[in-house]
Write a structure and sequence with these properties.
The protein has strands at about 10-15, 15-25, 30-35, 40-50, 55-60, 65. With about 70 residues, the chain is mainly β. It has a 6-stranded antiparallel β-sheet, with no helix packed on it.
Length: about 70
């Protein structure tokens, strides 16, 4: 799925919402790979920032918790 603002999502959908494992890439080079529930990062995942910094952890409703 390619969004109008240039974001790209590759992964599973359920009822037209991101669900399960997927990868979201932003135009600035940022990339999240991990679990999604109802269109939000939720569960184990990894965020790779444009500068190469990697943040691994647990997300809950789109917010990194650990």
């Amino acid at each position: 799925m390619v969004y109008p603002k240039g974001m790209r999502y590759e992964g599973s959908f359920v009822a037209n919402k991101k669900q399960g494992h997927g990868v979201m890439t932003w135009p600035d080079g940022k990339k999240y790979e991990g679990l999604w529930v109802e269109d939000k990062q939720h569960g184990e995942g990894k965020m790779c920032m444009a500068d190469g910094t990697i943040k691994s952890g647990i997300w809950e409703n789109g917010i990194q918790k650990k």
